[in-house]
Amino acid sequence: MTEREPDGPGRSEPPLPPAASAGPVRTPFLGPGVSGLVLALCVLTLAVHAVDSWAAANNPALHGLIMWSGTLVTAPDMLPRPPPEAPLAGLSPYVLHVFVHAGWWHVLLNMGILLAAGSAAAAPFGRGVSAAAGFLAFYFTCAIAGAGLHALVHVNEPTFMVGASTAVSGVFAAAGWASGGRAGMLRLAVPWLLINALIAIGGIFYSIPIAWAGHVGGLLAGMLLYPVFVRVFRRG
């Protein structure tokens, strides 16, 4: 968005066209409106959780399939009963964990943040297939980065990780980029980074069931890679 000086007395000039920009287009943090793509992503995630919740009580086989495909398990060989290896040589949970949640509170919290910040993050990509592909590629890249850092930190410790907060953490940083450039990104990302650092320190003394390393991995990916994805995929 560009600004121009107001017309002087008695002058009337046509508005100037917007200037070209190589960086992300600045948008309000909550976005100019709800992105259809982000809304669809939220609906899909909620639908998967609804099916899983039903299956947990009525179809154990389906519930087991969802958990097997989407739960990231670290150090499985250290468990008393190691679970079978996940699909795609154990790689499917690095992507599909974003659709699996520990309860309704968990999925509603993540989708609330995604709905709030995702529209701002998606807007600079523009419209069309390429723009949608770019935002989804960014979203799942953050998810993979979060899952990867979690697996690295807990390589010798059995844990179970699910939830979209890996990807949502990256979208949170992206919303800062979109609404205020680097300074805006830092205003949002640094407090979340510090909160997760405190969770990590607390985890040394207490058992805290929060995947802080997944948050940090997704957040760092969003901080570093969002401008690159926008530059490559932006349309319109």
Question: Would you kindly provide a written description of the structure presented here, covering whatever features stand out?
Answer:
- It is a single chain.
- With 236 residues, the chain is an all-alpha fold.
- 63% of the residues lie in helices and 3% in strands.
- It contains eight helices and two strands, in the order ααβααααβαα.
- It has a two-stranded antiparallel sheet with strand order 1-2.
- α1 (36-58) packs across α2 (60-70) and α1 (36-58) runs antiparallel to α5.
- The longest helix is centred in the last third of the chain and has 41 residues, at 165-205.
- The model is unreliable at 1-25 (pLDDT under 50).
